[in-house]
Amino acid sequence: MQQRTWSPQPPLVALGWVLAAAALGWLVATPDPAGRLMAGVAAAALGLAALYGTVARPCLVADADGVEVRGLHGGRRWAWPQLDVRVVRVRRLGREVALLELDGYDRDGVERLAVLGRLELGAHPEEVADELSALRR
What is the pTM of this model? Predict the structure, then answer.
């Protein structure tokens, strides 16, 4: 059985941890209240992003039976008949970005949407969609 996985690039996750530590150092070192607020927000955001990249590995797992998407709170698995895969293009910060949308139905009929970008996948979403199409057959 062929299985394919996608996850954030390890150097990017390591950079997130380093930047979170630097922001934490900035928080401790600065006497300015506004600077402390900015440093605290930056440390929290970078720490959460690095934590996600560390814990949710691999972020996407696909095989002949279906797809599993992992996050901070665990994973969700969908069989191929319960899943629609598409690539959408959105404008973000003035440029067009591709996102992989996984629209699936749980066993109880509840619809769930997972949206993954290049950072979460470690690859271009269009390439991932093509590989998912090949696995689905």
Answer: 0.80
